[in-house]
């Protein structure tokens, strides 16, 4: 897991924050045998620690391999510049055949994020493939900061309800 450093790069978090994690991705030790999905998650964690996407980091929350915390730093030149955004990542037991669930824990106003922090990103829905990795997911989420997808607006039902009930529509 990484935290923002002063130079715009991320630096490792103190390993004491992660029970069972000794500081390198390959040294994660599970207390029980690891399922196929767990092995895949471990492999992705190792790859993410070796080559993280720009301004992104992620890693297990405590000793739960299926619950991660991610950090994305708002890209420069956007309204999110300099912001630090935290997300929960929950991997399903049948990962990678089902996508992980990502929820913004930092409050954010964005057309692809609803008020509960849920994301509307194709990569987590219709375009999901077992070939995708959490690194690709983090890159996709960071890209919505740079280029929002208003046609994937999450408030369609809420917006249509308000439009229909609007005095202008009567």
Automatic annotation (TrEMBL):
> Does the keyword Transferase feature in the UniProt annotation?
yes
Q: Which organism is it from?
A: Arabidopsis thaliana
Pfam families recorded: UQ_con
Pathway where this protein functions: Protein modification; protein ubiquitination
Q: Which UniProt keywords apply?
A: ATP-binding, Nucleotide-binding, Transferase, Ubl conjugation pathway
Entry's InterPro entries? UBC, UBQ-conjugating_enzyme/RWD
Q: What is this protein called?
A: AT3G13550 protein
Where does the UBC core domain lie?
36-170
Fetch the PROSITE patterns from UniProt: UBC_2
């Amino acid at each position: 897991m990484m935290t923002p450093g002063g130079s715009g790069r991320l630096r490792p978090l103190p390993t004491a924050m992660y029970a069972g994690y000794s500081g390198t991705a390959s040294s994660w030790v599970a207390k029980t045998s690891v399922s196929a999905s767990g092995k895949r998650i471990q492999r992705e964690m190792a790859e993410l620690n070796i080559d993280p996407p720009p301004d992104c980091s992620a890693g297990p929350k405590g000793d739960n391999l299926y619950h991660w915390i991610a950090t994305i730093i708002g890209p420069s030149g956007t309204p999110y510049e300099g912001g630090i955004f935290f997300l929960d990542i929950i991997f399903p037991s049948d990962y990678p055949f089902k996508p992980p669930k990502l929820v913004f824990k930092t409050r954010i106003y964005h057309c692809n994020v609803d008020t509960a922090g849920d994301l509307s990103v194709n990569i987590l829905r219709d375009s999901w493939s077992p070939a995708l990795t959490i690194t690709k997911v983090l890159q996709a989420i960071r890209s919505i900061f740079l280029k929002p997808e208003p046609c994937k607006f999450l408030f369609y039902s809420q917006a249509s309800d308000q439009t229909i009930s609007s005095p202008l529509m009567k």
